[in-house]
Design goal:
Radius of gyration of chain B: 13 Å
Oligomer: heterodimer
Structural class of chain A: alpha+beta
Structural class of chain B: mainly alpha
Largest interface: A-B, 22 and 23 residues
Low-confidence stretches of chain B: none
Strand content of chain B: 5-15%
Largest sheet of chain B: 2 strands, antiparallel
Low-confidence stretches of chain A: 275-280
Mean pLDDT of chain B: 86
Strand content of chain A: 15-25%
Distance between the termini of chain A: 57 Å
Helix content of chain B: 55-70%
Shape of chain A: elongated
Shape of chain B: globular
Largest sheet of chain A: 12 strands, mixed
Radius of gyration of chain A: 35 Å
Strand order of the largest sheet of chain B: 1-2
Mean pLDDT of chain A: 82
Helix content of chain A: 40-55%
Number of helices of chain A: 28
Number of helices of chain B: 6
Chain lengths: ~900, ~100
């Protein structure tokens, strides 16, 4: 029963309240309250289980500890007035639950949302990294000058040249990734990412080992011994945080034993190896020294898969390093015009790199948080102003009975503070939830967001701003009460009109809500459009398993046999309609991306190196039939295309257009390289285009070869099941292990999941910004409702007179609605004027809609007006219930 | 000494053997935030004595010991005055009779 949330909440309330109790009495006080609550919750549990009613009962009893604590405090302190004020305020707030609830909600939303977003920004930009002087650490990427795409992994030869030529860095290094099977007795084989790093790598980071050491200079030489460093995560998850692992050897892949020389500290997250698609690999688990260059690396300038990091010389700004690398890329472009004409270099501070795709969204979210906070403040001010005005009579009476103005002001102050503190506390809980949701939804390439602590300064500032608004609004009515005005108030039962101010606040709220709602609307539209994009294959009912053959399958012939066996087994699984395999799985994580120059026999080479590039993909079995990729001309591969038959190829529609320019590719001979082998293949067919990386990225030219003529290591299998049948992921795994129990599996997924994963970024933006927009919209609606219901109650007499003089019910409703819609319409227009230039912030995030999409603006504006009308309608109805006789008798 | 209707209800409940804070809240149907300050005040004025429940009972029910309150002789005297001044509403009196603990004095 102690785990039941209602009793936990009750206990938490009492413990929080205990702070008020003087220290001398606190322990006993707390013991008594806890004992009562636990007894009570145990009894409720026994009797009926926790129902809504019993939970509320427990919480309200716990809240009773507040007056009790206040009473005790009063016995100990001289300042009886303050305690009395607090008690009085508390009672008043409890008596007006509607007002209290709305105000708390407004406080909580404003403070919670603003705190959450600023905390995210703070984590991303300020949190200490496990890197010394992180502001000097840079990542360097390739940049395509023609397409404008940046953050591309670097071709080995370019990386080597950058590192050796650049003078802006005290140290620079390369890292290149590879993957391996990790086998442990009693565990499913695991698949991990490793990186080979060049000599200066750990100098660049300035990172020391947590246990053991980093690599010695001689370990970077050829034949320097098989040594590794483990990431903190691998060490913690797989080696039980055992420091004595240092000095022992571990078996990383079949047959290869490596000596562990060190363990890295936590927080070395670098999000390396982007694979150009924005989706990143898992964090590097094992680090190895790069022992000399491999064959081909010093000349490989096409197809990037390395990373470059550098530490700036003291006093060298980022711009200067960027300028130097621009010069170096220009040199390389002159030296290697075929490959490097369009390749630039992009220097990105490590910290900025780690912000990933959130970089584009964060300013937007900060704007959203600021707008929400403004709306919350306006709303709080509005609510308190309305309430203060409604209490003119109460204040007048108290003043007449001798209360000083200071005393009245103090009373209002205490009330506002009480609301603010309670609302702020709820807001912090809200911020915590929001941060947890953000951590769960974060895009894959954003580092450091696994756990986001609440930023105390942000919470303080957000609370401060809101409380200031509350105080200003709370004090205004008591300040206004000069004596003559008070007399007037006594007579009329109302204070002077503040409609102008409140109207202005409503306009501000509606305008801010419109800005956010338009932003969210644009994101929703582009998300809907992007999901409707045809990827070139049918995405339903396909299960995918991605593998890399272990190093024991060390020849193409062995792999071809192994994979053919596996394909046959998968095809025989119950429920599988069609099965095939592919080296570069569309939307897959374990894609083997090979892109190289393609030449056609009897035709001159393409004008530029870029135009001559095509992706090369090996396929096996009924890959195209399984995926539903159409055959446009010629034939597909079949069992007659074997390792010993003549080389054949299929080309995609895009490749046919790019290389044959309207001519017929069938029968042409094409030359290209794949995994170190030169192909001279005859084109036997043309197939439809397939998008590979993301739905919003067009398909590129692609050439297919039969897997039997390749034998590369990585392969993904696809299996189609009947419509609506459950996925067969486990069955697929079992087929693999039936052949080789030590073979690790990279991943299994439904094809739809793979596609959905590439939309994580869009979904994140949508949820967060959409959440903000919805919250603001609700706040604005509450604001309109508050103002309109207040002003209608103030004008009850006027309406009474109008009805007495012959106004119909419709006239009255029209009058109230007209007033409200006037304000809302004004807010919509102002909001639209603000939104038009502001939406440019969204440009990079949209797909298929413009930032000024008229449909979105119109729909959102209309929705806002409808919401405002609904918010006015309730007060309008209430105004109608008053009969003229009643109103006139009020005097 | 202020004898409000609420104070009267609390005294009445105590006299009928309701000795724990929440039990008094249950039977009088007053909010906990009203009952407790009254108990504290009565204790301060010597009309009520408070002590902790036996540990053995609490352990049997797997919770911390509760605090219990009893009318002192002076308290019983004040109850008379209070009842003379404020009537206990009939539904409350009925509740008190119905829920009265077995060991009431």
């Amino acid at each position: 029963m102690r785990s039941d949330p209602a009793s936990r909440l009750a206990l938490r309330i009492v413990r929080a309240v205990a702070v008020l109790v003087p220290a001398a009495a606190r322990a006993d006080w707390l013991r008594e309250w806890e004992a009562e609550l636990q007894h009570r919750s145990a009894r409720l549990q026994r009797r009926s289980g926790p129902t809504w009613r019993t939970k509320m009962d427990l919480a309200s009893r716990a809240l009773g500890s507040l007056p009790d604590a206040a009473w005790i405090r009063r016995q100990f302190t001289a300042d009886a007035d303050a305690v009395h004020d607090a008690q009085y305020a508390f009672r008043l707030l409890v008596k007006a639950p509607g007002f209290t609830f709305v105000t708390l909600l407004v406080f909580a939303t404003g403070i919670g949302a603003a705190t959450a977003i600023v905390s995210v920004a703070d984590v991303l930009f300020m949190r200490p990294l496990a890197v010394s002087e992180p502001d000097r650490v840079m990542t360097v990427w390739q940049y395509n000058r023609e397409t404008g795409r940046g953050r591309l992994d670097v071709a080995p030869a370019n990386a080597i040249d950058w590192v050796t030529r650049a003078r802006s860095f005290v140290a620079a290094a390369t890292a290149d990734p590879f993957t391996f099977n990790l086998n442990f007795a009693g565990r499913e084989p695991d698949y991990l990412t490793a990186a080979r790093v060049s000599e200066q790598f750990f100098t660049v980071l300035g990172t020391r080992a947590l246990h053991g050491r980093t690599f010695l200079p001689e370990e970077y030489r050829r034949g320097g011994g098989r040594v590794v460093m483990l990431s903190h995560a691998l060490w913690a998850n797989r080696f039980g945080r055992d420091p004595s692992i240092v000095g022992t050897t571990v078996r990383l892949d079949a047959g290869e034993r490596c000596r562990v020389v060190g363990v890295l500290p936590p927080g070395v997250e670098l999000r390396l190896f982007h694979e150009s698609s924005g989706a990143s690999r898992p964090e590097t688990a094992v680090w190895m020294p790069k022992q000399g260059l491999e064959e081909g690396e010093p000349s490989l300038r096409v197809g990037g898969f390395w990373n470059v990091v550098g530490r700036l010389r003291p006093g060298v700004p980022v711009d200067q390093a960027q300028a130097e690398l621009d010069v170096i890329s220009a040199q390389l472009a002159r030296e290697y015009p075929q490959t490097n004409a369009r390749i630039g270099a992009e220097v990105v501070p490590l910290r900025v790199h780690l912000v990933g795709t959130l970089r584009d969204v964060l300013p937007l979210l900060l704007v959203a948080a600021a707008l929400l906070l403004i709306v919350a403040c306006a709303n709080v001010a509005n609510l308190l102003l309305a309430r203060g005005a409604g209490r003119g009579r109460e204040f007048a009476v108290r003043q007449a009975l001798g209360a000083s103005r200071i005393r009245l002001m103090r009373q209002m102050l205490v009330e506002s503070l009480l609301l603010a503190v309670a609302g702020g506390s709820v807001g912090l809980v809200l911020a915590r939830w929001t941060l947890d949701v953000i951590a769960r939804l974060r895009p894959a390439d954003v580092a450091l967001l696994d756990h986001i602590p609440i930023d105390a300064r942000a919470a303080l500032i957000a609370s401060g701003v809101t409380i200031a608004a509350a105080l200003i609004a709370g004090l205004t009515p008591s300040l206004q009460l000069s004596r003559p005005a008070a007399v007037q108030a006594l007579r009329e039962g109302r204070s002077g009109s503040r409609r102008g101010v409140r109207g202005a606040l409503v306009v501000v709220e509606v305008a801010a809500a419109l800005v956010l709602a338009v932003g969210a609307g644009l994101l929703v539209r582009s998300f809907m459009l992007i999901q409707r994009v045809d990827p070139g294959f049918s995405r339903e009912d396909i299960s995918v398993i991605q593998l890399f053959a272990s190093t024991r399958m060390d020849t193409p012939a062995k792999r071809i046999v192994f994979y053919q066996q596996l394909l046959d087994r998968i095809g025989a699984v119950r429920g599988v309609v069609a099965a095939g395999a592919v080296t570069s799985m569309p939307f897959g994580e374990a894609r083997v991306i090979v892109r190289g120059p393609l030449t056609i026999a009897g035709r001159p080479p393409a004008a530029s190196a870029e135009d001559a590039l095509a992706y090369t993909t090996a396929v096996s079995g009924e890959y195209f039939q399984t995926m539903g990729v159409p055959l446009l001309a010629g034939r597909l591969f079949d069992r007659t295309d074997t390792a010993t038959s003549r080389d054949v190829a299929l080309v995609s529609r895009r490749a046919a257009q790019q290389f044959w320019r309207g001519g017929d590719p069938l029968g042409s001979k094409v030359r290209f390289r794949f995994y170190g082998r030169a192909y001279d293949a005859e084109v036997v067919g043309v197939v439809g285009d397939v998008r590979h990386e993301a739905l919003d990225r067009a398909a590129a030219a692609e050439v297919f070869i039969p897997y039997a003529q390749s034998g590369s290591t990585g392969l993904s299998f696809v299996a189609r099941t009947p419509r609506g049948a459950p996925p067969i992921l486990q069955a697929l795994k079992e087929q693999v292990w039936a052949i080789d129990s030590l073979q690790s599996i990279y991943s299994t997924a439904r094809l739809e999941q793979l596609i959905s994963k590439t939309l994580v970024g869009q979904r994140f933006n949508l949820f967060v910004l959409g959440g903000f927009a919805l919250a603001t919209l609700l706040l604005a609606a509450a604001g309109v409702y508050g103002v309109m219901s207040f002003s209608t109650s103030q004008r009850a007499r006027e309406f009474g007179v109008r009805v007495a003089l012959g106004a119909t019910r419709r006239d009255i409703v029209r009058l109230v609605l007209g007033d409200g819609l006037h304000l809302a319409g004004f807010g919509v227009v102002i909001g639209a004027l603000i939104a038009l230039p502001l939406m440019r912030l969204l440009r990079g995030l949209l797909f298929g809609v413009t930032v000024t999409d008229p449909a979105t603006f119109v729909v959102v504006g209309f929705v806002l007006v409808v919401v405002a009308a609904a918010a006015c309608y309730v007060p309008a109805r209430r105004a109608l219930r008053v009969t003229p006789a009643e109103v006139l008798r009020l005097d | 000494m202020r004898l409000t209707p609420a104070t009267t209800l609390v005294l009445h409940a105590l006299a009928n053997g309701f000795s724990h804070g929440f039990d008094i809240v249950d039977v009088t149907q007053l909010p906990s935030g009203t009952v407790y300050p009254i108990l504290r005040r009565l204790e301060g004025e010597g009309l009520v004595s408070a002590s902790w429940e036996d540990h053995a009972i609490a352990r049997g029910e797997q919770r911390p010991p509760r605090r219990y309150y009893e009318l002192t002789e002076a308290g019983k005297g004040v109850l008379e005055t209070a009842l003379a001044r404020h009537r206990v509403p009939r539904p409350i009196a009925a509740r008190v009779r119905r829920l009265r603990p077995a060991t009431s004095s």
